[in-house]
Amino acid sequence: MTRLPVQLWIGAALSTSLLAAVLISFLWTPYDVTTLNIAEKLKAPSASYLLGTDHFGRDLLSMLMEGGRISISVAVLAVGIGMGLGVPLGLMAAANRGSWLDEVIMRGNDLIFAFPSLVIAILITATFGPSATNAIIAIGIFNIPVFARVARGGALTIWTREFIMAAKVAGKGKIRISVEHILPNIANLLIVQGTIQFSLGILAEAGLSYVGLGAQPPTPSWGRMLADAQTMIYTTPRLAIAPGLAIVAMVLGLNLIGDGLRDLLDPRIRRARE
Q1: Rounded (5°) CA angle 116-122-123
Q2: Which GO biological process annotations does it have (predicted)?
Q3: I need a labelling partner for 214 at 20 to 30 A (CA). Which of 2, 4, 146, 185 fits?
Q4: Nearest CA to 250 among 14, 78, 12, 76?
Q5: Helix count (H) and strand count (E) of the chain?
Q6: 43 is a domain residue
Q7: In this predicted structure, what is the pLDDT of residue 272?
Q8: What is the DSSP letter of 4?
Q9: Residues 6+ away with beta carbon under 8 Å from 51
C-alpha cells in the first residue's frame, strides 16, 4: 500500500482546519460583522472576544471566518476559470503542434503573461469598478496561460505514445483522442498545478484587496483586513497578525498539499521512495 507523504498530511491539516472555520461561518459566527459597536472597539482578547475587536468594535474572529469566504471563493473561481479555459486551449495546441493554431494560442499566452494579475485588475477595475467579481476575472485571466502551458507540455509527451498511434489507426479524431486518452493521462499534472494556483490565487486576492481593487467594505476579506490594520500596526499589531497568519497558514497548507500530491502521483518519485 502506498504511504502518503508527510507534507500531504500537514498541508491537509492546515488547510482543512481553516476551511472548516470558513464553512461554519455560513451557518454561524460569534458576532455579526456588519454591526459596528464603537463602545467595544480595540478590546483585547477575552472570553467574550477570543481574538479581540477591531477599531470599529467588530469581533476579529468573526471577521476572519467571514473574510475567508471571499478569499477562498475568489481563488476557487479564478482557478476554475483558468482551468476551464486554459486546459482546452493547451490540449488544442498540443493536438495541432507546429500549426498556425498552436502559434496563435501560445503567443496569446505569452501576451497575457506579459501583464501581471495586478495590472490586469487595474485595467478591469478602471473600466468596471473595484469588486470581488472583477478580482476573480483578473486572476482567472492570468491563470489561463498557466494551465494552457501545463496541459500542452503534458499532452505533447502523451501524443508520442504507442496507444495514441493505435487510437489514430482506429479512426479516432484529435478531439476524441484528447478527451479520452490525453486528458486522463495528464490529470495528475493539472491537479497538482491547480492546488498551487489555488494558493497563489489566495495571495493574489489578498494583494488586490489590500490595494483596494478586491472586496469592498463592508464585505470582509483577509486582504481587506490587512489594509484596515496597517495604520495601527504599531499600536495594535494583532489586527494585522491574525489575517496575516490565516493567509500564511492557508497558502503553506495548499503548497504542502501540492508537493505531497506531486510525490504521490508522479510514478518516478513514487518508485524512488519505494
Answers
A1: 95
A2: transmembrane transport
A3: 146
A4: 14
A5: 11, 0
A6: no
A7: 53
A8: P
A9: 45, 59, 60, 61, 64, 238, 242
Give the residue among 135, 130, 132 at the shortest CA–CA distance from 117. Answer: 135
Instruction: Say if residues 208 and 223 touch (Cβ distance below 8 Å).
Output: yes
* Contact by Cβ (8 Å): 231, 42: no
pLDDT at 268: 56
The owner of cell 482546519 is 17
Backbone angles phi, psi at 53, to 5 degrees: -125, 165
In the block, residue with C-alpha cell 494583532: 238
Beta-bridge partner residues of 59: 53
Domain contains 238: yes
Count of C-beta atoms within a 10 Å radius of residue 167: 17
- Domain membership of residue 127 as a residue range: 6-19+69-268
pLDDT for position 269: 54
Q: CB neighbours (10 Å) of residue 56?
A: 17
Q: What's the start-to-end Cα distance of the chain, in Å?
A: 11
What residues of the chain score a pLDDT lower than 70? Answer: 1-2, 117, 266-274
CATH of the domain at 15: 1.10.3720.10
DSSP assignment string, 74-115: HHHHHHHHHHHHHHHHHHHHHHTTTSHHHHHHHHHHHHHHTS
C-alpha cell at 160: 508520442
Q: Alpha-carbon distance 205 to 200, whole Å?
A: 9
Whether 40 maps to a domain, the answer reads: no
> Residue written as cell 493505435?
166
The x, y and z cell numbers of residue 101, run together, are: 493554431
Q: How many structural domains comprise the chain? A: 1
167, three cell numbers: 487510437
